[in-house]
Inverse folding.
């Protein structure tokens, strides 16, 4: 049972960062939603906002790490000119070409929206802090952006997993 | 003791929950929208023009994606910096900024969707 360097980076990019991203998203969105039910003077608000700061920061940081590692490491191996590269392999057969021309093309581009949106949300959380309890409109904006960040990353993650299954990087 | 503690908590909570100017938040939100659309435009233009795509080929092993992402992210950060300075300490109406930002985010989503950008492929 061995793991090559390429396997390791693919795992780091997809599973390690992907899992962290999901955890951070789940925690962050739960806290954002639950803040509306809090009394601004409640002592628990400070704890909630602290967790929210952690969740949104981790999600933004992991999103950046995911797209940067993905673009500058496994993607290089994926699109290599060699006939054995995953891209060449997928495009060699009309039955599998769609995995690249739709799946990979969508994944590699849409993924970069996730860290942009997640970073804005993290900033809003830090800027407003406990005031988020009273700023309902800002919470709504943050939730929309946070969910869009999740969806774009989820699309990228899903196609990444499916493409890796169809044509793993070797 | 507990009444002093309660007063302290209440005072701290009130100090922290006084209103903040909306400017910096609006700047971040709008920058997110403009950044998304700007990045999407880089994707669309590089598909529409091989020449433009070659211009964005900053690093051959990664191809034009290297330039699309660097220019896209740089645009997002620059817009945020500019708007952040323009709106620092100011009260900007979120009701005006958010619909524009959301529309621009949708532009970014559409421009990065292959069936759409391939309509313009050279």
């Amino acid at each position: 049972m061995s793991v090559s360097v390429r396997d390791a980076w693919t795992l780091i990019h997809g599973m390690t960062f992907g899992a962290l991203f999901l955890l951070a998203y789940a925690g962050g969105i739960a806290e954002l939603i639950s803040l509306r039910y809090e009394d601004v003077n409640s002592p628990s608000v400070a704890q909630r906002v602290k967790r929210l700061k952690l969740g949104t920061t981790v999600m933004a940081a992991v999103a950046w790490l995911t797209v940067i590692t993905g673009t500058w490491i496994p993607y290089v191996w994926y699109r290599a000119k060699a006939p054995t590269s995953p891209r060449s392999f997928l495009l060699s057969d009309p039955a599998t070409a769609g995995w690249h021309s739709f799946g990979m093309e969508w994944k590699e581009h849409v993924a970069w929206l996730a860290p942009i949106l997640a970073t804005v949300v993290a900033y809003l959380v830090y800027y407003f802090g406990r005031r988020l309890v009273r700023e309902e409109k800002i919470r709504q904006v943050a939730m929309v952006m946070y969910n869009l960040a999740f969806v774009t990353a989820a699309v990228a993650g899903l196609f990444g997993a499916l493409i890796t299954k169809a044509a793993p990087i070797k | 003791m507990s009444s002093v503690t309660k007063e302290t908590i209440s005072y701290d909570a009130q100090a922290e929950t006084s209103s903040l100017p909306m400017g910096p938040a609006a700047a971040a939100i709008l920058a997110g929208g403009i950044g998304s659309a700007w990045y999407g435009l880089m994707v669309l233009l590089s598909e529409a023009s091989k020449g433009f795509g070659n211009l964005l080929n900053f690093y051959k092993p990664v191809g034009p994606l290297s330039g699309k992402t660097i220019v896209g992210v740089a645009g997002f950060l620059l817009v945020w910096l500019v708007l952040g300075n323009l709106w620092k300490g100011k009260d900007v109406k979120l009701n005006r900024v958010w619909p524009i930002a959301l529309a621009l985010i949708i532009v970014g989503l559409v421009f990065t969707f292959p069936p759409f950008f391939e309509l313009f492929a050279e």
